[in-house]
Amino acid sequence: MICVKVPATSANCCVGFDTLGMALDWFATFYFEPNPEFVIEGCPDEFKNEDNLVIVGFKKTCDYMKVDMPTLKLKIDTDIPSSRGLGSSSTCIVAGIMAADAWFHGQLNKMEMLKIATEIEGHPDNVAPAIFGQACTSFMDDGDVRMMMIPCQNFKGLAMIPDYPIQTSEARKVLPQTIDYKDAVKQVGYALSFVQCLSSGNELIFPKTCHDFLHEPYRCKLIKEYAEIHDYCKSIDLAMWISGSGSTMLAMSLDEKKLDMLQEWIVKYCGMSYKKVSISTKGAYIEYE
Fold first, then answer.
1. Cα–Cα distance, 81 to 274 (Å, whole number)
2. How far apart are CA 220 and CA 146, in angstroms?
3. Is 201 helix (H, G, I), strand (E, B) or coil?
4. How many CB atoms lie within 10 A of CB 184?
5. CATH code, residues 2-151+280-288
6. Which superfamily, per CATH, for 156-277?
């Protein structure tokens, strides 16, 4: 049996719209074994077919390696919520790719896996950290994926998870077609500083960098709890952003006391689900059972 473990991810990271993502130490687990017939367990009935993203990733990897798709049993074990901005679809895609590679005895390197995952997902900002771990910057260059890992300090986080989903397609509809030139300049400064703060652990500047012009001012209106949580985080100088396209929000700090304060405030005033997380140094990996 092949077991693949894939981390949840937080894309955009506020100022890194479509280019920056980080792996979280919150893993989904996928089990693969030979089977006379095609079977999927551990997901809603509507995903128990060949359109399941795990199977899509597996089959596309087989096509890439020019081997036949085997019949198999897939079991999914995850509590990463879907359509909440935590990379649930990326965990499925990456799991399928890594399982197919392991099934046929490891022919691919991680950049090849990233290429396949990006072709399925459409962009690399979630799948890159899911494969490599840490935080990753990425972009497309004439159809080729380019990425760099960002070594991160030991940041801790609190994922705040509303009880409603936001579809990425809907979240993209609220975005503007253009932004002011002066705002674009500011965005570059904030994004470059954000990355440096992750690497250096500069807590003085880190919360100040979380000032986005590209998506959060528009998507925040889809998350009814955002304004209050944002204001509270700002009052205690705590970095916070919308994870992916939402509805999850993520706060991060080296100071766990601030995160404890936020957690107590969430319990008292918001009553939503939450989970303590940290940046995972490890991307997806294989275990054999």
1. 12
2. 29
3. coil
4. 12
5. 3.30.230.10
6. GHMP kinase, C-terminal domain (3.30.70.890)
Instruction: Pull the structure tokens for residue 150.
Output: 């960002």
Residues in the annotated binding site for ATP: 81-91
Can you read off the two tokens belonging to residue 115?
């290429």
Successive 10-residue mean pLDDT values, the chain, 289 residues: 97 96 98 96 91 97 96 97 95 98 93 97 95 97 94 97 92 94 97 97 96 96 96 97 96 97 95 96 91
Residue ranges matching CATH 3.30.70.890 in the chain: 156-277
The Cα-based distances of 162 to 211, 224, 236, 272, 280 in angstroms read 22, 9, 22, 6, 23
Domain with CATH 3.30.230.10 in the chain: 2-151+280-288
Q: Which residues are annotated as part of the binding site?
A: 81-91
- This prediction has a pTM of 0.95
